[in-house]
């Protein structure tokens, strides 16, 4: 017998190729062309690609060199994060016309709980259509949406009819939808886990459902319990309007590898200064300082130290990362340095309210 599924109406909105679409909107000569945001320098990494570029296999997180190789006509555009943030705020304002239960995941996507909404509209499907239309009217950009009973299914569904489309998975459709779903389409199942699943004979949700919780925990640890639940439509995570960050960090990739410890210290001093600005703007402090080092051979190290008090001062952060830097000798020249602060003074559930579960008559 299947577990009773929680009765919520969740929408996941995902902007279509957001950074690239903003650039094409602001620069009409780029419309319809293969563009990549970022990735223009010898060491650059693509932050986003237009749909025209994606046809050639250009994706975010690949190197600019590889992107150019795959698409010789590719146009590189310098990122303008202030502009993306500005438009993201306009999109957020649209969401708030419908519900205060908005959980942003990044500048270009968010979860909305519209179980009870400001428009009094019982249809989450119609609300999603309205929101997408409103975003287009306000920004000139298109968005895709997934609509279902929980965040996990809504997130998976939003990829179905991209770009500029939406998919609703009603309560009655949830279990068949999940059973038919390829395991590589499950949100949170990456390439490595997908391969491991395949080796265990798990290719679809239906295959996953045949495995016991014990079996999945044995092979995937804590994540196994999550897989056991989500394939049964169980994912009780609420939409959290004030998502609390677990860490705040700043990092830089260098155009030339750093070999001198003097230069490395200078870069860390600059990074600590930038991080202090972010922390003070958000009124956040933390106890655990982490130094991230990526070497020229692409291997990566992190070194951390937890202090007995909260800090957000650049001098204290710099002195701590300097200590971490000299814990052991650097094994190669350095291509990336980062500093992050965790164990934050925001890590508290004080005042957090649990949503009350309500049995509702559903009209998706």
From TrEMBL:
Q: What EC designation does it have?
A: 2.7.7.7
Swiss-Prot/TrEMBL site (Substrate discrimination) positions? 19
Q: Where does Mg(2+) bind?
A: 14, 108
Q: Where is the UmuC domain?
A: 10-190
Q: Keywords assigned by UniProt?
A: Cytoplasm, DNA damage, DNA repair, DNA replication, DNA-binding, DNA-directed DNA polymerase, Magnesium, Metal-binding, Mutator protein, Nucleotidyltransferase, Transferase
| Localization | Cytoplasm
Instruction: Give me the segments passing through the membrane.
Output: none
**Catalytic activity field:** DNA(n) + a 2'-deoxyribonucleoside 5'-triphosphate = DNA(n+1) + diphosphate
The cofactor named in the record is: Mg(2+)
GO terms assigned for molecular function: DNA-directed DNA polymerase activity
* Keyword Heme among record annotations: no
Q: Where is it chiefly localized?
A: cytoplasm
Main function: Poorly processive, error-prone DNA polymerase involved in untargeted mutagenesis. Copies undamaged DNA at stalled replication forks, which arise in vivo from mismatched or misaligned primer ends. These misaligned primers can be extended by PolIV. Exhibits no 3'-5' exonuclease (proofreading) activity. May be involved in translesional synthesis, in conjunction with the beta clamp from PolIII.
- According to UniProt, the name of this protein is DNA polymerase IV
Species of origin: Flavobacterium litorale
